[in-house]
Amino acid sequence: MFEDLADLFERAAADGTPIRAVVGEDPVEFVEAFLQNYTKGGWVTRARERLVDAIARAEGEDGRTRS
User: Fold this and answer.
1) Which residues of 4-40 are buried (b: 16+ CB within 10 A; e: fewer)?
2) Model confidence over 9-60: pLDDT tens digits?
3) What integer pLDDT is reported at residue 6 of this predicted model?
4) 66, 58 in Cβ contact below 8 A?
5) Fewer Cβ close by (within 10 Å): the C or N end of the chain?
């Protein structure tokens, strides 16, 4: 999460983007929205669920691991 935030600000700085264009008028709202992507229901949870599903599919219905 911190790396993503640092990348966001580094790209903005490299592009000459004003900080207000990144965070908007309410920095607290920006942070809350940013954090939503990393909390339950965010992309991390969905990525975990996809991983579990992919492993289950790879094992097959009989539960044996495929070679």
Assistant:
1) eeeeeeeeeeeeeeeeeeebeeeeeeeeeeeeeeeee
2) 999 999 999 999 999 999 999 998 888 877 766 777 778 888 999 999 999 8
3) 92
4) yes
5) C
